[in-house]
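Fig. S4 source data, part A: sequence.
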Amino acid sequence: MGCCFNCLKSDDAEPSFKKPLTEDTNRSPMPQESPKALSPVDLNDFIIEKVLGKGAFGKVFLVTKKDSGQVYAMKSLRKDMIEQRNQKIHTKTERQILGEVNSPFIVQLRFAFQTPEKLYMVMDFINGGELFFHLRRCSKFAEDRTLFYAAEILEALEYLHMQGIIYRDLKPENVLLDSEGHVKLTDFGLSKKFFSGEKKAYSFCGTPEYLAPEILKGIGHDHAVDFWSLGALIYEMLAGAPPFYSRNRDVMFRNMLSKPAEMKSHFSAQAVDLLRSLLQVDPKRRPISTAEIKKQPFFSSIDWEKLKKRSIEAPFKPKLSGIKDLRYFDKIFTDEPTDDSVPPQTLNSVAKAANKYDDFTYAEVQPQFKVD
């Protein structure tokens, strides 16, 4: 989607082995949100046009803001389901991070608001589709295409790590392509922001195929988990499947911890060197930073300054007729009715009053302009 948020995919749309694993053990206090030019918005300010995705907590909609005509993706989350699944900390973290980040390779939050029953996050609509959609269509990518996506993802990770944020859920479903074919990371529900004095996180979370060994072992983890996941994603783009994939999750985890990834015969020597450095079971043997990864021969052809400015032409440009062209979205969602109602009696009046998310409201500082 211009926002196909993976956490909102239905169980039918996503194989069980691709479901995120979460066990919340990080209890860092949420900081007060930075001062913003907050202007009240609510559901009445938007026209809901299409469903883009759905899942256990709610839905993602294509919406148009009435006063400006601007098109967005609106993530709608049911508070009762968040509470039932003990995901309040992760949801607050996602909102906090999205309100702080500003990168050309990350989807931007524009508005956030809530009702007694739901939370809403309104973001840029990125309509080139998920990397997963395109990878499934192509089976695997050529190395030059893989290189381009890996380099832009690396830029996004570098930015996040500089902000003290580990992403923790890098996979094809969470990488979007914009209308020019450039990368945008989305879905920060499993991300972690380190605060003063914190050096490691201990939550058991992620998606099995891309889960770093240190998370699986429960020994504590830091930004190196993103480098493992980057290696798994690059491998999948080149090979068509993740490096240790098995339908049997126990077998997959055992292979991950005990075997080196099998390097395919069509991988270049540069790709093999990069993958072997990233897919090290011991995080201390992986590169220590994005700067070190950038020096790998695999990335030698990249002009990083041009890349940061998105001045390198993408190897694939989505064929789109306009901002509301949804050809890269699954019709199983886009054909659904745009109902955003909550089943009756999900929360009683006392629970609704108590279940308010402090500091959730957000509005972008930039003024909105009328779209012709």
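Fig. S4 source data, part B ends here. The chain has two domains: 6-127+321-363, 131-308.
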